[in-house]
Amino acid sequence: MRYNQFNQPIGDPVPNAAQHGQLPDIKKLSGAYCFLEKLNAEKHLDDLYKVYGPDSPLENWTYLSMEPVQSKSEVKELLIKREASADPYYLTIINKQTNEAVGTFALMRIDPVNRSIEVGWVVYSNQLKRTRIATEAQYLLAKYVFEELEYRRYEWKCDSLNQPSRNAALRLGFTYEGTFRNAVIYKDRSRDTAWFSILDTEWPEIKARFEAWLAEDNFDEAGNQRRSLDHKSKS
Predict the structure, then answer these.
(1) Is residue 223's pLDDT more than 50?
(2) For residue 225, what are the CA distances in angstroms to 111, 215, 219?
């Protein structure tokens, strides 16, 4: 613990405190199973119509502040707006094997001065959920945040009742920090928001766990994992 000249406890010094984080500018982030690229309304429309359109399962939208879009023209309008947005900064997740867009997410609440940034607006197709691609996409984005943008804090927030999202945050290495009560009104209902984060000092260990889990030899011939991605365990 550090103390000032008045014997008051103060926080640790920040190396390069005057240095600002960079703003996201992604052309392509490539992994073994997927790649990420900035959302492009014209290029990704047909694939993302399946993700955002009327055939998208309604249960996928319970904890988002919107519902499936009812026409292709409306999806295109939505994607054009998201493509133009700087914060949130929307990205498309592409299956490397099929070259199909299977979901989107965004970097948001971008604070270059304090070097804090959030991943949010996670919209996955059912084909993406619980796959290696979904995990690798999150790994690629976290790596970009810490190693390219040089941020100190990476956030994940969700409705406190959204147990799958809470489980995903913990599995991916985020630490639960607490719940903000009555934080949001959406869909005419109240939301308590659960907060999670990863710090830059925690990233090296979390990165190693990601890479061990994503390694080809971590999966048997049937595609089942040999070791789980459990950032809270010591195994």
Answers:
(1) yes
(2) 36, 10, 4
